[in-house]
Design goal:
Layout: H1 5-14, E1 21-26, E2 29-34, H2 41-44, E3 50-55, H3 74-77, H4 83-89, E4 93-99, E5 108-110
Parallel strand pairs: 3-4
Antiparallel strand pairs: 1-2, 4-5
Length: 112
């Protein structure tokens, strides 16, 4: 029997994630709060082709990403500038919507 996403997220949290993140469940949806942006990638290994809402003053879509060697520690090789690019490259993210909360227009940008 396949384990559900919540069980898998809890396993990742217990096996290293609790050092840098907090796992919450909101309406049965596993939700992770991290200290640094790139630490989200640690949990992205559970998903593929996801839509992401990125709320930040910067797009964080740097064009250089390191090759992935170890899934458990790859997030440590990323930075806050390139973690979204890595998510797209490794097929965890399919679509990104970016909202700059400091922009006067406050519009949602579809960046791919």
């Amino acid at each position: 029997m396949k384990r559900n996403l919540l069980q898998k997220a809890q396993d990742l949290y217990e096996n290293g994630g609790k050092q840098f993140s907090k796992l919450l469940v909101i309406n049965n949806i596993p939700t992770v709060i991290t200290n640094n942006h790139n630490e989200n990638f640690y949990y992205w290994q559970l998903i593929s082709h996801a839509t992401t809402l990125h709320i930040d003053a910067h797009p964080d879509m740097g064009d250089w990403i390191p090759c992935r060697k170890d899934k458990k520690t790859y997030h440590q090789e990323l930075s806050i500038c390139n973690f979204l690019s890595a998510g797209v490259h490794y097929n965890h993210i399919y679509e990104i919507y970016w909202l700059n909360p400091h922009s006067r227009k406050r519009r949602l940008h579809d960046v791919g």
